[in-house]
Amino acid sequence: MNKLLLIVALLVSTSKLFAQPQDDSYQYKIDLLNEKNNKVNVSFILPKNNLQRGKFVMPKLIPGYYDALNLGQYISDFRAFNKNGKSIAAKRLDTNTWIVSDLKNIAKISYKVSGGWEHLMQNTSNGKSTASMFKKDSVFIINYSSLVGYFEEIKNRTYSVTLKKNRKFFPSSALDYISKNDTTDIVSAKDYRHLVDAPVLYCLPDTTWIKVGNTNVLVSFYSKENRSYSKTLATKIETILNNQQAYLGGKLPVNKYAFLIYHEKIPKGMMADGLEHSNSTMCLYGSNTLDRLPEALMGVASHEFFHILTPLSIHSEEVQNFNFLNPRLSRHLWLYEGMTEYATIHMPIKQHMINMQEFIKNIEGKIKGMDKFNNKLSMTEMSTNAIKMQDQYMNFYQKGALLCLCLDIRLRELSNGNMGTQELMQKLIKRYGPEKPFKDEDLFNVITVLTFPEIRQFFKDYVEAGRPIPLKESLLKVGLDYNESAKTVLEIKNPSASQLSMRKAWINQ
Ligand SMILES: [Zn+2]
């Protein structure tokens, strides 16, 4: 009996010893160390499969960007090999896709990837924050969507990426990098979307960590001219994040967040390019000096950080299962961008960071901003057609934010001051969350159930049908007079008790 047990135990331990590395994941290798002519070598082992052939995809589009990027344009020298190192046929179909034969016998695929830009003043077809940038001796900005792909037939797999890099470089990212040795880092992601959602900045470290509640926030800075500046930026960001945390009920829904800031000296003026991610913001900033960077960054930081609510924690299936080749877009950009921007202007007044006059000025800014767009369009249609209607997209930051202001006041009115958009968002986070998407067509009904029957009509009129938002009547309820022809907002001289109590509930003033 004992002997048998021993043999069984031995068998178990030997089988563990000889266990193959996880074979249902994509295992990528990216060599930054030997970057040459603005190109890096990339290779990968694909998950075990039984396929005769497969279609390899690089993204045509990525979440949060509503123009075709065709990220396959950076790929060259695409080759597939079997385990004996023999070439297997691979044919490029178009910019973003390749057909690879005999997929089940492929041991390795390799290709080269070009950097998308070299300096901020350069003219490029795509927004720079969507591409990667390689400067061998100083900095790498890695957006995995331009380096890593997937097979259409083998989706929803984990990724492990091993990066070879300069021994002095440090990776800053929302994902955790494990240092295997001086020149090798490894990062894992639970799927493709998760990986491409977390860009990384590789350079000599200038990093500062701050703790906001339970969230570890990394501020990482790169500038050729200026070292040791992350602490200055972190101090500025910290104030805003603490106020955002209080605004969100004292608890943040993420454990880690990263601000990745690249600065480049340009002769004059100022330029900024950025792209939102769930747990990080990559900000590219050009200026002659750093004088105005902290202020500029605070503006970006407050909007981007609020995305930890939506889409990160509240999003539809279209976002969760984003199709990188032919995406079907969600109808709720009013929520993802409108609510995020509303929180960005609402938080400072609610947290007593600004006064009433400054708040009113921000509202007037949105009213004037909205004027440049077609305000008769349905916001749900603008959202699902965001790619075709790019000229209207920026209105989600204007009209979308003001719509959420009206919704906030309507909710306060119906709830006797107890519930506004802040409380609504908390209810939605509880019901959904990062791993549980909502059905696009259900959201308005769900919000109605969570709030008041009257809210369904609000969405019908102002989001689905595209009626002009009820700004004048909403602001009147909180004692503000909106002059529609002059586009001004004034405080009413002798507000009623009801107006005063509504205003108190709305902005705590
Ligand atoms: Zn945004």
From TrEMBL:
It holds the Pfam family Peptidase_M61. Residues 27-202 form the Peptidase M61 N-terminal domain. It comes from the Bacteria. Residues 297-403 form the Peptidase M61 catalytic domain. Residues 1-19 form the signal peptide. InterPro entries: Peptidase_M4/M1_CTD_sf, Peptidase_M61_catalytic, Peptidase_M61_N. GO terms for biological process: proteolysis. One of its GO terms (molecular function) is metallopeptidase activity. Keywords: Hydrolase, Metalloprotease, Protease, Signal. The keyword Signal applies. This is Putative metalloprotease with PDZ domain. It comes from Pedobacter cryoconitis.
